[in-house]
Write a structure and sequence with these properties.
Layout lengths: L8 H14 L5 H13 L3 H6 L7 H15 L4 H5 L1 E4 L2 E4 L9 H21 L2 E6 L5 H9 L3 E7 L2 H13 L6 E5 L10 E6 L14 H4 L15 H10 L3 E10 L5 H10 L2 E8 L5 E8 L2
Parallel strand pairs: 3-4, 3-6, 4-5, 6-7
Antiparallel strand pairs: 1-2, 7-9, 8-9
C-alpha cells in the first residue's frame, strides 16, 4: 500500500477498499467500511461526515495489519474480535462460531413461542445447546425480560466468551453456563430448547471457503459422516429435558429439512414450524414432543 494515503478517514477508507478490490473480495466497499469503522470506532455515517479527520499513524499501521489478515482470508469480524447479533454486541473467540445473520432467523422464529409461554407461565427457562458466543440464548433473554437461560457447550473457552457476552450486555443475572456435550451437564427441565449445532458433513469441510474452514472452530462445523450426528444426539434425549408443551428450535443446513425432520419424528417429535432464510433456503425447524 502507498504511504501517502491513509492520513485521513476518507483516505484510509479508500486505501483499504482499493486493497480489497484488488484482491477480488466479493464486496470490497462494505468490508472496508466495516473494518475501518470498527477499528476507528466510527459508524457508517461518521465515516462519511468525518472523512477529512486525521487518522493517527498508529491507527493507520493497525488498519494495514488488519488488511493483511483479511487478505489471508480471516473474516472481518474475527479481526475486529466482535460482531453485532440481534442488537447485541458479542465478542468472538477462536473457540466460537461467528454468529451469522441467518441465525437471527432462529431467534425470530422462537420469540413468539417464548413470549406465548411467558404470558401463560410468567417465566420461561431456555436451554441453548452448543451456545458458542451465547448469541441465540442472550438475544432471546434480551427480548424476554422474564426469561432465564442456560448455555451449554463442550468448550470451556466458548463458555467463558458467552459469560463475558452476557456480562457486557447486562444479562449475566439471567444466564448460566454448563460445560459438557449436549445434555451431559444438564439436570433440569426447560420450556424452550434452541441450537445451531454443527451440521456440515465431514467430507465437505475441506471444500468450504477458507474464511470458514480456517477460522471457525472445526467442532462447531463438523456434523459427522452425514452431517446429522448432532441432531441425533439432541433428538434422542431432548424430551427428558422439556416441559410438556415445550418447543425445540434448531438451525439446519439448506438441504436437511427432510432428514432432520425424520430424525426428530423417529424420537417422538412433531414438526410444528419450518422457516426459510433470506436466500429462501430451509433454515429453522421447530418441534414439539408428541405425548
Amino acid at each position: 500500500m502507498s504511504g501517502g494515503q491513509g492520513s485521513t478517514v476518507a483516505g484510509l477508507l479508500q486505501e483499504v477498499r482499493a486493497s480489497f478490490a484488488e484482491a477480488d473480495l466479493d464486496d470490497p466497499a462494505t468490508e472496508a467500511r466495516i473494518l475501518v469503522g470498527g477499528l476507528l470506532r466510527l459508524s457508517s455515517t461518521e465515516l462519511v461526515t468525518r472523512g477529512s479527520q486525521a487518522v493517527l499513524p498508529d491507527d493507520v499501521t493497525t488498519a494495514r495489519a488488519a488488511v493483511a489478515r483479511r487478505l489471508n482470508h480471516e473474516p472481518v469480524y474475527r479481526i475486529l474480535g466482535e460482531r453485532e447479533f440481534y442488537g447485541l454486541s458479542l465478542r468472538l473467540s477462536p473457540a466460537t462460531l461467528e454468529p451469522r445473520p441467518d441465525t437471527e432467523i432462529l431467534v425470530d422464529t422462537m420469540l413468539p413461542h417464548v413470549r406465548r409461554l411467558q404470558s401463560e407461565l410468567g417465566n420461561v427457562h431456555i436451554l441453548d445447546l452448543g451456545t458458542g458466543t451465547g448469541a441465540i440464548c442472550l438475544a432471546l433473554l434480551r427480548e424476554c425480560p422474564q426469561a432465564t437461560g442456560v448455555g451449554s457447550d463442550i468448550s470451556a473457552e466458548a463458555l467463558e466468551t458467552a459469560r463475558g457476552n452476557a456480562e457486557r450486555n447486562g444479562l449475566a443475572a439471567r444466564f448460566e453456563t454448563a460445560q459438557g456435550s449436549w445434555f451431559d451437564a444438564i439436570h433440569e427441565r426447560f420450556h424452550v430448547i434452541v441450537s445451531n449445532p454443527p451440521y456440515i458433513a465431514s467430507s465437505v469441510i475441506s471444500t468450504l471457503a477458507p474464511e470458514v474452514k480456517d477460522f471457525d472452530p472445526p467442532a462447531a462445523l463438523d456434523g459427522g459422516l452425514d452431517g446429522l450426528d448432532a441432531y441425533r444426539a439432541i433428538a434422542k434425549d431432548a424430551a427428558r429435558f422439556l416441559y410438556p408443551d415445550g418447543k425445540i428450535g434448531v438451525e439446519i443446513g439448506y438441504d436437511q429439512r427432510e432428514t432432520v425432520t425424520s430424525v426428530f419424528e423417529g424420537a417422538g417429535f412433531l414438526l410444528v414450524e419450518a422457516v426459510l432464510d433470506y436466500g429462501q433456503n430451509d433454515r429453522v425447524l421447530v418441534f414439539q414432543f408428541h405425548r
